[in-house]
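My current task is to audit a protein record that another person submitted. Alongside the sequence sits a line of tokens, each denoting a local backbone shape. Where you disagree with what is written, explain briefly why. This is what I was given:
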Amino acid sequence: MANSPITRFSFLLMLILISASTIGQKKFKVKVIETVTTPGNYVPDRYVFVDEKGNKIRELDTAKYTTCFYNEQYVYFTIVTLKDYTKANKNGWAAIDADERILFTVMNTSYGEPTPDYLWEDAIRIIDTNNLVGFANSKGKIIIEPQFEAVSTFHKGKAIVATFCKNIPWNDHATEGDCHHFSTICTNHGYINKKGKVLKMGPYSFEEIKKEIKWEDPEDDY
């Protein structure tokens, strides 16, 4: 039996959507052009995006960006701070693509220190406006929507998650401008898979779940 017009239309629409999502993915590399700074005259470095043929895509406006992370690899997004992107400046970092579109906010991994998360097992931790945590992959696609209070990196396809969490300050801070450090204490722990499915959750400690799934911290490898 021949395909109906509706079936053919649905198939064509699906092809268009797939094509549109692929076209938007551009790999690029960040080149840093260092500037000469003299006493009393600070000039920020310049950040230029180039494609895989070495052609310039764009240069970031130094009046708009304060930081841009870079390496020698071609990527689908880079991590930056924008002067007017309050959420990123306070609790995370903006991830932008080759067209400077903000894809998501990357989680800051250490309280009181500028330390954006990094890709591990093709997953980077991201946060929403409520500071809930999820994951995106190396292509800049959100693979697990932000929904967890606290989450570790993935190790062999599993990540530790926690609920009923509180941030306990290390010590008193004299002023709001002080560098604030906290320890995150949670009542329940469990773990998820790469699809975000909770495989276990309950009144377990972090160490108990870590031992059960043989989770390892990637920082231990450095």
The CA atoms of residues 17 and 23 lie 10 Å apart. The first strand starts at residue 29 and ends at 33. Residues 5-23 form the longest helix (19 residues). The radius of gyration is 21 Å.
